[in-house]
Specification:
The protein is α+β, with helices and mostly antiparallel strands and about 450 residues long. It has two domains: about 200 residues, no CATH class; about 190 residues, no CATH class. The chain contains 14 helices and 20 strands. The strands form six sheets. Strands 7, 11, 12, 16, 17, 18, 19 and 20 form an eight-stranded mixed β-sheet that branches. The chain has a three-stranded antiparallel β-sheet with strand order 9-8-10. Helix 1 runs antiparallel to helix 2, helix 2 packs across helix 4 and helix 10 runs parallel beside helix 13. The longest helix has 25 residues. The radius of gyration is 27 Å and the shape is elongated. The chain starts with a strand and ends with a strand. The relative contact order is 0.09.
């Protein structure tokens, strides 16, 4: 029977080490149990990655499980891609470690063998369950310690120490004296690796473009850019986006009405769109684009979302509504951004003001995980056209974002929503200014 070599556990009574083995089929069955769990089944990226590294390890190709190779083989990155700008492999591995830990913490998995992805490595380790490790070994092998093959486990460095690792530490105390020098050297190496890993993690979570765009770029799936549109009916009148979207979802749209109706995208939104897509292109990230009224809820659940436009984008209005800051149109004459926690904070925009005059426009920029669609969302949305352009400028300017993050001392990995203002001079927007923020 084909078996896979796994780390050893010590038999406390006989003070020897036992190499425990699993069959390939046992490991693959456990793999499928994990990826079928609620922690993995709604994702394409995490099961694919975990399956690949397990299968490659079982095939004897563990030495090829390096970051760049995984980026190319699993995520179809070009062979020359920059792993610093595109940390998809490291981010995915980190998320898988967290989800595996959550899986084994649930009741009912105590007797299952363990599949683990150690920190600092992409080679999975296989452990017996803490309850069955010693008892599952062949008792005859304990009679002659000279026949026992010792497999030394790679150290585990997760913040929350798994049960198996804790058991290893406990059972290793008896032989520390004999192997003190080796252990100290190993611990020194581990400490250095842990420090380097921490520095890399801090770099990836640092300020600037990486902070706001990291989840989108590292998703491994195509980003969907949803751009707001203005719909004009057959009389040339602006039709509310909510009515148009309902009209289409009910199947009442036909070819004639579709040809008579006009869907218009403001030039300012196209300018914003070009800034955002240029950033994605420079980072080799695939994207696709749809109008807001043509986009379905199911499409929003397939990958990271970028929403361009405020009141002309039905999905911006809906997804932003539960957040602290949201859009509101009291009439065709005036629109505003409201603070849902403090009603005294309202930023109004006069829709009837002269285009070439001097005024202020406002925008919402947000980077957050939306539980309703279980995807990361980037919002780039102004009340007026200058607001959306300002939001796009902010999200593509590393200096603007870095300055705000450092000033506000925003912790890594948080969801962020900002309200921006821009001064309009002779119809042209000025630089963005953060006037309100929410971090959670």
């Amino acid at each position: 029977m084909e078996t896979a070599k796994v780390v050893s556990l010590q038999d406390e009574e006989k003070n020897v080490f036992i190499e425990t083995q699993f069959s390939r089929s046992e490991l693959l069955e456990q793999l499928e149990r994990i990826v079928a769990s609620k922690h993995f089944r709604n994702s394409k990226r995490y099961p694919s990655f975990l399956r690949f590294v397990v299968e490659q390890t079982l095939a004897g190709k563990a030495e090829a499980l390096k970051e760049r190779n995984l980026g190319v083989d699993v995520f179809a990155r070009p062979s020359h891609y920059d792993t610093n700008d595109d940390p998809i492999v490291r981010v995915t591995a980190g998320e898988i470690r967290k989800r595996i830990a959550q899986y084994y913490q649930e009741s009912g998995h105590e007797e299952e063998l363990r599949i683990d992805l150690p920190l600092g490595s992409y080679v999975p380790h296989f452990f017996p369950s803490p309850h069955s490790a010693v008892h599952s070994a062949d008792p005859d092998r304990l009679k002659d310690p000279s026949n026992v093959q010792v497999a030394t486990p790679a150290p585990e460095h997760e913040t929350a120490v798994p049960e198996t690792t804790a058991l290893q530490i406990k059972k290793s105390i008896a032989w520390i004296g004999r192997w003190k020098g080796t252990i100290l050297l190993g611990l020194s190496i581990v400490s250095i690796m842990t420090l380097v890993g921490a520095l890399l993690q801090n770099h990836l979570k640092g300020p600037g473009i990486n902070y706001f765009w990291r989840s989108t770029i590292a998703s491994g799936t195509s980003a969907l850019i949803v751009i707001g549109v203005h719909s004009l009916n057959e009389r040339g009148e602006d039709e509310p986006v909510d009515i148009r979207a309902t009209f289409m979802r009910n199947g009442q749209e036909n070819m004639l009405s579709s040809m008579v109706r006009s869907d218009m995208v403001p030039v300012s939104d196209i300018v914003s769109y070009s800034k955002l897509t240029d950033l994605l292109t420079r980072r080799n990230h695939v994207y696709r684009t749809k109008g807001s009224v043509d986009t379905t809820f199911e499409e929003l659940r397939q990958g990271p979302i970028i929403l361009i436009g405020g009141l002309d984008n039905i999905w911006t209005k809906r997804l932003v509504a539960p957040l602290r800051y949201s859009f509101f149109a009291s009439s065709q004459l005036e629109s505003e951004i409201r603070d849902n926690k403090d009603p005294s904070h309202v930023w109004k925009f006069d829709n009837m003001q002269p285009v070439s005059g001097d005024s202020h426009d406002y925008a919402i920029v947000a980077s957050y995980f939306d539980p309703s669609i279980e995807q990361h969302v980037l919002v780039v949305a102004g009340i007026g056209k200058a607001g959306t352009q300002t939001a796009a400028e902010f999200l593509t300017s590393d200096q603007d974002m870095k300055s705000w993050l450092i000033k506000e001392k925003v912790p890594p990995g948080k969801n962020v929503e900002l309200v921006l203002s821009t001064e309009i001079l002779d119809g042209q927007p000025g630089p963005p200014h953060v006037i309100a923020s929410s971090v959670w």
